[in-house]
Write a structure and sequence with these properties.
The protein has 410 residues and is mainly beta. It has two domains: 115 residues, Immunoglobulin-like (Sandwich); 262 residues, Beta-galactosidase, Chain A, domain 5. The protein has two helices and 29 strands. Strands 11-18-19-20-21-28-25-24-23 form a nine-stranded antiparallel sheet. The two termini are 32 Å apart.
């Protein structure tokens, strides 16, 4: 399924960049909550190419969305890695069935917003390779990495073994090696924590700390939301590739994204290149996974690790379905809920193999979008029982079925 787009049509405008708000009647939009439930940290985006020319050509770091006199948390995002911003991403709180008028403008002194998301990639430098293990060195955060051929699992080269991304609710990582499976960092705080994870010992995050811990045993399964290929009644992860490239696409107050290129993924008798974009926004547990393929591949899949003491849950909305598990399945032996959310039109089958609960999906024009999430009971105000988790999943489907609506003010 192609990326859901919010369409915004705006008329022309002359911008006065010396004032905080100008020409208020010509650059206003309304954002509306189409549901009968309150929306907290509701995400919406404004396509840059739909902006008036003066705004679209401005320094986008100076472009601000105002709610009355107050700036709304927002950031400019480059979605396609071409060096140009494609959208302005924002979050807003809206009452049930409410609409708000927002004003777009540039300012000479752009506000800074509290960071509620981040993405990072950190590996060792100033050391050396000995066979397939990296010796010595210190961790350094980087914006991108062409994964060296020597690197494999437990090479002690990449901090917590791959890139990480988080919101103020939860954190995730995946193994940037032949395993390519997604794991969960449960958080006991709303603070951003990834910058400290794995600094006091390579796998110290497996023990409960003040910030939280790695809460999932992945093994050879799909972990949570990992991409794979369904073949011979088995979910195969992205294991055999020619090379890997990973980058922090953006890391901002509203949204963060990790983008990974898998060159030459061996899916069976054929190879394809995969671009994987994993993003999360402020106030949300959801990771959005957008997948692009260089050649047509059918029967892609994702899913959730099979663990003991769990119940399998399923639910449907107007356009989106979920497959979830709930139970005492965290590494700390407490309650953990996990879910993958996928478009009904993409579903081929819901099944399982010996290690994972699996959803088999059909890409649309070599693209696929799905979501995954985790809810740990030790989070601040965490979900502690099945009924509350199911209610949360139903509300999540409603948010996806009825996203924030945007319109121009006449």
């Amino acid at each position: 399924m192609k990326r859901l787009a919010y369409i915004l049509l705006l008329s022309g405008l002359l911008t006065n960049s010396c004032s905080n708000i100008s020409n208020a009647d010509s650059n206003q939009i309304t954002v509306s909550n189409p549901s009968d439930a309150e929306r907290t940290d509701a995400f919406f985006s404004i396509p840059i190419d739909e902006l008036p020319a003066d705004l679209a050509k401005a320094d986008l770091s100076h472009l601000v969305v105002y709610r009355g006199e107050a700036p709304l948390p927002c950031q400019a995002n480059d979605l396609d890695d071409d060096g140009q911003a494609d959208e302005l991403a924002c979050v807003i709180d809206l009452a049930p069935a409410a609409s708000e008028t927002l004003t777009l403008n540039t300012t000479t002194d752009p506000p800074s917003f509290p960071s509620r998301t981040q993405a990072e990639l950190s590996h060792k430098v100033d050391g050396y390779w000995e066979d397939r293990e990296y010796m010595g060195g210190t961790f350094q955060n980087v914006e991108e990495l062409h994964v060296p051929e020597e690197h494999t699992d437990h090479s002690y080269f990449i901090r917590y073994e791959g890139p990480g991304w988080e919101s103020d609710r939860v954190g995730y990582r995946f193994y940037l090696d032949w395993r390519n499976a997604t794991d969960i960092f449960g958080k006991q705080t709303t603070d951003l924590v990834l910058q400290d994870v794995g600094q006091d010992g390579f796998d110290s995050y497996h023990e409960l700390a003040e910030w939280g811990m790695d809460v999932l045993k992945v093994g050879e399964s799909l972990g949570l939301g990992s991409l794979g290929k369904w073949h011979n009644n088995r979910a195969g992860r992205i294991a055999m590739t020619d090379s890997l490239y990973c980058a922090v696409a953006y890391s901002g107050p509203v949204e963060s994204m990790i983008r990974t290129n898998y060159y030459g993924w061996q899916t069976g008798v054929e190879k394809t290149d995969v671009t994987s974009s994993l993003s999360i926004h402020a106030g949300s547990r959801l990771t959005k996974h957008h997948v692009q393929l260089s050649t047509a591949v059918d029967s892609l899949c994702t899913g959730i690790v099979q663990l003991e003491n769990t119940e399998v849950l399923r639910g449907s909305g107007d356009q989106w379905n979920y497959l979830a598990t709930w139970g005492t399945q965290s590494l700390n032996d407490d309650q953990l809920g996990m879910a993958v959310i996928y478009c009904q039109a993409d579903e081929l089958a819901v099944t399982r193999d010996s290690m994972s609960h699996v959803v088999v999906l059909n890409p649309d024009d070599q693209e696929l979008t799905y979501y995954f999430l985790a809810a740990w009971e030790l989070e601040p105000n965490g979900i502690t029982d099945r009924a509350a988790f199911e209610a949360y999943l139903e509300e999540t489907l409603k948010r996806l079925d009825k996203p924030i609506e945007i319109a121009e003010i006449d």
